[in-house]
Amino acid sequence: MRINVLTIFPGYFDDPLSLSIPGRAREAGLVEYRLVDLRDHTHDRHRTTDDGPFGGKAGMVMKPEPFFEALRVLSDPGHVVSLTPRGRPLEHATAVRLALEDEITLLCGRYKGIDERVTEEWVDEEVSIGDYVLSGGEPAALVLIDAVVRLLPGALGDHESASSDSFYDGRLAPPAYTRPAEHEGRGVPDVLRSGDHAAIERWRQRRADEATHARRPDLLDLDAAD
Ligand code: ADE
After folding, report:
1. To the nearest whole percent, how much of the chain has pLDDT over 70?
2. pLDDT, tens digit, for every residue of 103-139?
3. Burial of 19 (C-beta count, 10 Å sphere; 0-12/13-18/19+)
4. Does residue 165 sit within a domain?
5. 151-183: per-residue pLDDT in tens?
6. Distance 161 CA to ligand 1 centre (A)
7. What's the domain range around 206?
8. Tally of structural domains, the chain
9. Pairing with 220, which of 56, 183, 191, 210 sits 20 to 30 Å away (CA)?
10. Mutate-to-test residue for ligand 1 from 60, 128, 135, 143, highest number of ligand atoms within 8 A of CB
11. Whose CA is nearest to atom 9 of ligand 1?
């Protein structure tokens, strides 16, 4: 898979994409990241990427020309995603769907957003990572990349199966424990040390259901509506 990112801060991605699972997936040849600096697609002395909005109001809007040129230079940008608080919420299902693409291109806006003509011409979907406003799309793009890349076959090691993650089966994950069995007066549920795999699985299902009921009843309501 290839992931292109259009941003005015390509350096923002250096460490996060070289470390941990996103970094290992790149080393293993499962994914290629291509960072495109939008300022390389400006043609004025100040390398301007934003301007005041038509119609007034405070804030700046990202100009269309650098996006259009950068997207044309990519030749085929694949599935184009714009990160914006106006987008549809990022969910596990979004990550699963995007992980099936050969090539995706992420557009990172800043300020008051990207000129709407970029979205009309190029964008397949707008995605938000939550109901809050970030200073730019860059952290949201990193979140999306991490969620997608860990789903690529071979990205996770033997001990990191995605099937025990939260949301994998529409529920939150159960709590997890590791050694020591006793830590500062707190133990580990006996069943987890019993060796009874059926009982352990029942305990995990129950704790996953309890957590989902308590914290994310909306996940269960969605199931009921299916
Ligand atoms: N850009 C600014 N805020 C954002 C958000 N919540 N999600 C995605 N992109 C954003």
Report:
1. 97
2. 999 999 988 899 999 999 999 999 999 999 999 999 9
3. exposed
4. no
5. 999 999 877 778 888 888 899 999 999 999 999
6. 29
7. 171-225
8. 2
9. 191
10. 128
11. 84
Report the mean per-residue pLDDT for the chain: 95
Amino acid in the structure at residue 100: L
Residues with CB under 6 A from ligand 1: 83-85, 128-130, 132-134, 137, 140
Q: Is 156 a member of any domain?
A: no
Residues 176 and 144 in one domain: no
Q: Which residue has the tokens 């993650």?
A: 165
HSE value, Cβ hemisphere, 13 Å, CA-based, for 46: 4
Model confidence over 138-156: pLDDT tens digits?
999 999 999 999 999 999 9
Q: What is the DSSP letter of 107?
A: E
In one-letter notation, the amino acid at residue 140 is A
Same structural domain for residues 116 and 81? yes
Atom of ligand 1 nearest to the CA of 109: 1
Same domain (yes/no): 221, 143: no
Pair 88, 51 in one domain: yes
Question: Averaged over 77-102, what is the pLDDT?
Answer: 98
